[in-house]
Amino acid sequence: MFNLDIFRANSRGAAVALGAIVGVVTFSHAAGAGPLPLFPFVMAPPVQTAPQLQAVPSQEEGVVAELPARLKRQVVGYATREAPGTIIIDTPNTYLYLVLGNGQAMRYGIGVGRDGFTWSGVQSITKKSEWPDWTPPAEMIARQPYLPRYMTGGPGNPLGARAMYLGGTIYRIHGTNAPGTIGTRVSSGCIRLTNEDVADLYSRVNVGTKVIVLPMDRHADNSFGRRG
Q1: How many angstroms separate the Cα of 32 from the Cα of each of 19, 25, 26, 36, 140?
Q2: Which of 53, 98, 141, 179 has the fewest CB atoms within 10 Å distance of its CB?
């Protein structure tokens, strides 16, 4: 037969045991001061973070291809009767000299016109522009019809960071987005410098600056200086 007393005794024992378990859980929750997981035996998936992107330095920040030592901007001895501030383009040696006076000049490595596109003469800077737009002249479009008719200024523009326009000609002294061409004969007659160097030159000269471009068969050496 069913024993009611035994059932009651067992029920009281189960209630006491359950109360003890609830007390332990409550105490542990209070001590941990954190939410109690519903299913503590289930592992939470790892949290994945987005990869960090590294900024790529630009030429505007002064990062350019490494140049040979002779093509790096430097002060050199240079005898000439030209006034300080004059620019002399040594076409055959791919140098640009900015006369400083007292027998010195700042020398820059440059890129010059390819065969058939070199020129010589005396001009002056008639305009200066930062991050200039580019409108290829009609002569260039005729030779290279695939060129854009217009390109806004910026790091992708072939005129680079600065441009100094020479007289009423189509030629400029300008920067380049291809610094590996410094020291070569590759242009259609313009004089190119690295963006870092053209920004330096730009800061040193003004509109009206005299620019002497030497022919391929004449070097900007001391004999040129003695001839004035």
Answers
A1: 20, 11, 10, 9, 78
A2: 53
Taking only Cα atoms into account, the Rg of the chain, rounded to an integer number of angstroms, comes to: 38
- CATH class of domain segment(s) 69-227: mainly beta
Question: Catalytic site residue 203?
Answer: no
Residue 140 class from Cβ within 10 Å (0-12 exposed, 13-18 middle, 19+ buried)?
middle
Exactly one of 88, 166, 190, 193 is catalytic; which is it?
Answer: 190
60 contact partners, CB below 8 Å, separation of at least 6: 155, 161, 195
* pLDDT of 132 strictly over 50: yes
- Of 114, 140, 124, the residue nearest 216 (C-alpha): 114
Classify residue 161 by burial, with Cβ atoms within 10 Å: 0-12, 13-18, 19+: buried
Which one is predicted more confidently, 82 or 54?
Answer: 82
**174 given a catalytic annotation:** yes
Per-domain residue ranges for the chain? 1-39, 69-227
CA 156-159-163 angle, 5° bins: 140
Among candidate residues 107, 172, 174, 192, the one labeled active-site is 174
pTM, full prediction:
0.67
Rounded distance between C-alpha atoms, residue 211 and residue 183, angstroms: 19
User: Regarding predicted confidence, which is higher, 157 or 123?
Assistant: 123
